[in-house]
Amino acid sequence: MAWEWVAPVMTGVSGIVGVGFTWYAGHQGRQHAERVAAMNSTATLQQAREARRATAYLEAMTTVQNATVAVSDMSSTIKLLGEQVSSIPSPEEQIAARARVALYGSEIVRITFAQWLGHFNQALNLVEMREISDGDLSDLPTLKDELRESSQSMRDVARQLSDVMNKELAS
Fold it and tell me: CB 3.0–4.6 Å: which of 93, 113, 129, 168 could bond 101 by disulfide?
């Protein structure tokens, strides 16, 4: 009679221990699922950010290359009155490129883009000066040389910008 209580007590204790371990295993499973979901969410967000950055860089570089080619064309040919040699990207395209770089560009990309933009603005000023002095050909060789130098600077900085963007996207 002394041992009759052992079986029911052991059954009860093992039941309680089983319920406890089941709850603990479920708790760990839920925590693990939460961590995996958070990591997946972070990874998905990071991939989306990188995709937006790649698209922004591509569109900005397209504008940079188009503007660089247009200025290069203008510096290598003498424009006849009323003749359009190459088209500079529209102000809307230029603003969009600036916005993309400002929003998605890293610090080095923004600095390099600002350098390119300085050369681009200088080239535009030279183009305007050339157009203003279209009747007076005495300044044309000087303006053309300055425009050629500015165009070369734009190409150099555009190449640097492309290298920086490619390096960032590759990492």
Answer: 113
Neighbours of 124 (CB within 10 A): 18
Q: Are 143 and 129 in contact (CB under 8 A)?
A: yes
* DSSP codes of every residue in 100-151: HHHHH--HHHHHHHHHHHHHHHHHHHHHHHHHHTSS-TTSHHHHHHHHHHHH
Instruction: Give the span between the Cα atoms of 117 and 99, in whole angstroms.
Output: 13
Asked if residue 107 has pLDDT above 50, the reply is: yes
- Whose tokens are 């080619």? That residue is 69
Quote the tokens at residue 83.
């003749």
pLDDT tens digit sequence for 125-149: 887 776 666 555 555 667 778 888 8
Return the SS3 of 146: helix
What is the reported pTM? Answer: 0.67
Which residues neighbour 65 within 8 Å (Cβ) at sequence distance 6 or greater?
158
Residue 40 makes CB contacts below 8 A (sequence gap 6+) with none
Q: Give the Cα separation of 85 and 107 in Å (integer).
A: 35
For 4, the token pair is 């009759």
d(CA 154, CA 34) in angstroms, rounded, equals 50
Q: Are 71 and 89 in contact (CB under 8 A)?
A: no
